[in-house]
């Protein structure tokens, strides 16, 4: 019995030495049409900003852009975070990895920041598009810590790119207005 108790204590000590990692106050920064970036939270609700997952981000002018950045806070029981990155895909094709600048906040806490200067789309095809994001911090002893949604799903939001009228349509509208002005002038 004594050997079993000693074995259980040793196992508990080994498991507690492994430590844990986690995330809190995690935001993606989204700028539409050159406007200042808005804070959209992923992960747990920090009671600030708008929830990213399932959000409609807004309309984007056909000649404008969607830009992305991050402001993530994370921790490690053993204070071993070496850096991190966030990732995104547009409409599920390929992915981009953006490394952030890591700052040690004290204790076991870290912050990764990157301004909303990374262009997700400039112009683009008209219609609804889906932007999906997730994040990762890494360290020496505890390995990677992923920030993704329930059951490993990532966080997704949509936006709409408005179409530019074709040049022919613009010419026809212009001719129509000119015709109305000419008609009015004759009267």
H/I helix tally: 2
Profile the largest sheet: 6 strands, mixed
CATH fold-level topology: Coagulation Factor XIII, Chain A, domain 1
Estimate percent helicity: 10-25%
Q: Quick one: CATH class?
A: Mainly Beta
Overall 3D form: elongated
Low-confidence stretches are: 7-17
Rg, nearest Å: 25 Å
CATH 2nd-level architecture = Distorted Sandwich
Distance between the termini: 110 Å
H/E element string? HEEEEEEEEEEEEH
**Count of individual domains:** 1
Class from secondary-structure proportions: alpha+beta
Q: pLDDT average, as an integer?
A: 85
Please indicate the percent range of residues in DSSP E strands (runs of 2 or more). over 45%
Q: How many β-strand stretches?
A: 12
Spatial sequence of strands, sheet with the most strands: 3-2-1-5-9-8
Write the layout of secondary structure elements.
Blueprint (H helix, E strand, L loop, with lengths): L1 H17 L2 E12 L5 E5 L7 E2 L4 E5 L4 E12 L4 E10 L2 E7 L1 E6 L2 E14 L4 E13 L5 E3 L7 E7 L5 H20 L1
Parallel strand pairs: 2-3, 4-12
Antiparallel strand pairs: 1-2, 1-5, 5-9, 6-7, 6-10, 8-9, 10-11, 10-12
Describe the structure.
- Mean pLDDT is 85; it is low at 7-17.
- Helix content is 20%, strand content 51%.
- The chain contains 2 helices and 12 strands; from the N terminus they run H-E-E-E-E-E-E-E-E-E-E-E-E-H.
- With 187 residues, the chain is α+β, with helices and mostly antiparallel strands.
- It has a single domain (2-178), classed as Coagulation Factor XIII, Chain A, domain 1, CATH 2.70.50.
- It is elongated.
- A hairpin with a 2-residue loop joins strand 8 and strand 9.
- It starts with a helix and ends with a helix.
- The longest helix has 20 residues, at 167-186.
- Strands 3-2-1-5-9-8 form a 6-stranded mixed beta sheet, with no helix packed on it. Strands 4, 6, 7, 10, 11 and 12 form a 6-stranded mixed beta sheet that branches.
């Amino acid at each position: 019995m004594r050997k079993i108790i000693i074995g259980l204590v040793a196992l508990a000590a080994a498991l507690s030495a492994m430590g844990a990692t986690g995330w809190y106050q995690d935001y993606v920064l989204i700028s539409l049409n050159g406007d200042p970036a808005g804070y959209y939270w992923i992960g747990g609700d920090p009671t600030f900003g708008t929830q990213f997952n399932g959000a409609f981000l807004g309309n984007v002018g056909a000649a404008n852009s969607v830009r992305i950045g991050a402001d993530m806070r994370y921790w490690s029981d053993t204070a071993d975070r070496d850096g991190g990155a966030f990732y995104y895909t547009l409409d599920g094709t390929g992915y981009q990895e953006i490394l952030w600048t890591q700052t040690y906040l004290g204790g076991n806490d870290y912050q990764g920041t990157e301004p909303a200067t990374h262009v997700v789309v400039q112009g683009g095809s008209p219609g609804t598009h889906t932007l999906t994001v997730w994040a990762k911090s890494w360290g020496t002893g505890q390995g990677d810590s992923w920030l993704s949604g329930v059951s490993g799903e990532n966080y997704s939001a949509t936006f709409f790119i408005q179409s530019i009228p074709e040049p022919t349509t613009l010419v026809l509208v212009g001719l129509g207005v000119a015709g109305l002005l000419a008609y009015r002038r004759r009267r």
